[in-house]
Amino acid sequence: MTEPRPPHYAVIGHPIAHSRSPAIHAAFAAQAGVALRYEAVLAPLDGFATTLKALRDDGLQGCNVTLPFKPEALAAADLASDRAQLAGAANTLGWTSDARLWADNTDGLGLLRDIEHNAGCKLAGCQLLLLGAGGASSGCLGPLLEARPARLLVWNRSSSKAHELVSRHESLAARLGVQLAALEHLQGAPGRFDVVINGTSAALHSGRLELPEGLLNADGLALDMVYGPASAPFLDWAARAAPGARRRDGLGMLVEQAAEAFQRWHGVRPDTAAVLSQMRAA
Ligand code: NDP
């Protein structure tokens, strides 16, 4: 008799070989005693929907979605969380018991958990600068606003995208009492920030972010959503700009957003500290 196959999960992207999601979900599963098979799937650039359908026909229970398919993942869903709709993108998909496809975006929750829980830095009342207005920043802006910083400014290389992102979140910011605006020029930034988050992919494209040294408070926090060696240019800037400031790369965010997805699928919240240490060691 053949063994039943364990429930099937995946991360879909293009490219995908670099993804650490299979290792993270395998570590969560081992910790929680959950049997699953989680694989990285490369979808053709014009083939997200057909790839998702083929995987579902083969028994897929849920999946993460990464670049460049997050907007398509949202569009494919029958049900979408408010935060996924506000972000215009989804990174976590699953099916309801009556087979409807649901979509969520856990990037912002993961970022927030890494900042507030892992780094112990409360955002309420702080001055926050978000660099970038791409998919990752879009996914994080709503949850960052929910943490109620006093002021949150968004800077992006193409300023029209920063303005568009800000205008999409204006009513949420007003409801929460957060001053939200786009920042045109980093050189003319109004004072120092308690928290500077780099949500650009500049370092991955060998691009340089020209950041003035007066941006970060002496006891502030600099966080790069990028992880590993590619985070060095931003974190080195932070070390020069404010030697006493805390510096974090995006590995904590990655593990925490995965934990949110794991909890949605399996109903168990993993111990992320143990898995983060394991991933750092690897
Ligand atoms: P997108 O391609 O959607 O957006 C890229 C962003 O980077 C845009 O704001 C773009 O500006 C900006 N950018 C690119 N090159 C430069 C440059 N040379 N100078 C200044 N700005 C630049 O990517 P994502 O938003 O999805 O991802 C951004 C980063 O976040 C990636 O490095 C990704 O790996 C990381 N990430 C990490 C996660 C984690 O869990 N740790 C989760 C998701 C993403 P413009 O609009 O002007 O082109």
Write the layout of secondary structure elements.
Elements: E1 8-13, H1 21-32, E2 37-42, H2 48-57, E3 60-65, H3 70-76, E4 79-80, H4 82-87, E5 92-95, E6 101-104, H5 107-118, E7 127-131, H6 135-146, E8 151-155, H7 159-176, E9 179-182, E10 193-198, E11 216-224, H8 232-241, E12 246-248, H9 251-266, H10 272-281
Parallel strand pairs: 1-2, 1-3, 4-6, 7-8, 7-10, 8-9, 10-11, 11-12
Antiparallel strand pairs: 3-5, 5-6
Q: How is this structure best described in words?
A:
By secondary structure, the protein is an alpha/beta fold. The chain folds into 2 domains: 8-105 and 253-281, 3-Layer(aba) Sandwich (Rossmann fold); 108-249, Rossmann fold (3-Layer(aba) Sandwich), CATH 3.40.50. The protein contains 10 helices and 12 strands. The chain has helices at 21-32, 48-57, 70-76, 82-87, 107-118, 135-146, 159-176, 232-241, 251-266, 272-281, and strands at residues 8-13, 37-42, 60-65, 79-80, 92-95, 101-104, 127-131, 151-155, 179-182, 193-198, 216-224, 246-248. The protein has a 6-stranded mixed beta sheet with strand order 2-1-3-5-6-4, with helices on both faces. The chain has a 6-stranded parallel beta sheet with strand order 9-8-7-10-11-12, sandwiched between helices. Strand 7, helix 6 (135-146) and strand 8 form a beta-alpha-beta unit. Helix 1 (21-32) packs across helix 9 and helix 9 crosses helix 10. The longest helix is centred in the middle third of the chain and has 18 residues, at 159-176. Bound molecules: NADPH dihydro-nicotinamide-adenine-dinucleotide phosphate.
